[in-house]
Amino acid sequence: QEPLTASRLAAAPLHEQKQMIGERLYPLIHDVHTQLAGKITGMLLEIDNSELLLMLESPESLHAKIEEAVAVLQAHQA
Amino acid sequence: GSSINWPPEFHPGVPWKGLQNI
Q: Which residue on chain B is closest to A73 by alpha carbon?
């Protein structure tokens, strides 16, 4: 699968951009948090696309954001 | 309130509903 670049993303209609990023993020998140993957992916998609692209290329940033999202989610559900 | 439905879940192959709020 080709990397998702900013230019490839910009070529897509706005309503498809988040979807394209989500399709990349979901499997990575599913590896870490199987049960919560759908919710975590939805939360992270609210972040700016430019930052999401950086996260896709940086496992450390992605995992930090995932843990942040889980903490927020747990606080929200409490 | 609407916060009950937050976050909008993403599932592969399914149009993400969070797009309505962007």
A: B7
Environment class of A30 (CB within 10 Å of its CB; exposed 0-12, middle 13-18, buried 19+): middle
Residue type at position A44: L
Residue B10 to residue A25, Cβ atoms within 8 A: yes
| Contact (CB, 8 A) for A20 and A6 | no
A41-53 pLDDT, tens digit per residue, is 999 999 999 999 9
Residue pointed to by tokens 């999401």? A52
How far apart CA A37 and CA A27 sit, in angstroms, is 8
Chain A: closest CA distance from residue B1 (Å): 13
Quote the DSSP letter at residue A11: T
